Amino acid sequence: MSKIRPVIGVTGDFRPERFDGAALSWFNTGYYDSVAAAGGVPLLLPPYANDDDLLRVLELMQGVVLAGCNLDLDPLRMKMHPHPAVKVMPKRREDFDRRLAELAIERKIPVLALGAGMQLVNALCGGSLYQHIPEELPRAIHHRDPVEKNLRHILEIVPGGRIDHIYGPGEVRVNSNHHMAVRELSSRFRVSATCPDGVIEAYESVEEDWFCLGVQWHPESNTASALDLQIFEAFVDATIRKCAGISVENEPRDIIPMSATMPRAA
Q: 0.85 cut: is pTM over it?
């Protein structure tokens, strides 16, 4: 089973044509290097305009990484009045990410959702989002600093959950660069980790036949720790297990009830 190298689709960024330059797509190296280092074969996904093309390439993949973005999901598409701090990502980028995520959810393809990808999957599954943490959660710690790009905070990890299984014992600190966040978590997920202020930092699927892990930090970034590669290793391992017909819940970890998803005391 360890010799299987699953093909993992990785979404990228997009900028539409403008007066001083052509439209372009790009991919942060950390995403595809992390997939490869974890044993997968990264397949870079431009924002296909044709649904038939997306469906065709989906047949090649055993898993999907929904990458983050420096810009935000459009609040109007979630029936919210936009906050002035929100800077919406290009429509073609969000259209594609939404369609890909919808198909992955529908087909229960293993998903690793990072940053804005985590927020998107939660919204598509019926959850909701905070648009701007500093105003909606004024007692929260800083989750984004426009000057200090290496902002980090500790995680409050839920015992027995997937993040606990991935990182093991000891203090875990992660990078942080976001102002939107999960508000109400979809019933399809359980909390895996929070920030000490209560903001949800990671969730996992409650469905034993679907691996979906969403994290708010960026394990692919050059500001990540060496331990963060384990996020990708767990994800790639889950795709191999699915290929082999092994339940994602068939792992050496305890499954916690929904009532046990409160963060540990700081």
A: yes
Cβ atoms of residues 100 and 11 within 8 Å = yes
Mark out the alpha helices in the chain (DSSP H runs): 29-37, 51-58, 91-107, 116-124, 133-136, 162-167, 229-243
Domain 7-260 listed as CATH 1.10.760.10: no
**Measuring CA to CA, how many Å separate 89 from each of 23, 43, 63, 70, 255?**
14, 22, 24, 8, 36
pLDDT tens digits, 132-167: 999 999 999 889 887 777 799 999 999 999 999 999
**pLDDT beneath 70, residues of the chain:** 1-2, 248-266
Give residue limits of the domains in the chain.
Answer: 7-260
As a whole number of angstroms, the distance between CA 159 and CA 169 comes to: 10
Task: State how far the Cα of 26 lies from the Cα of 31, in Å rounded to an integer.
Answer: 11
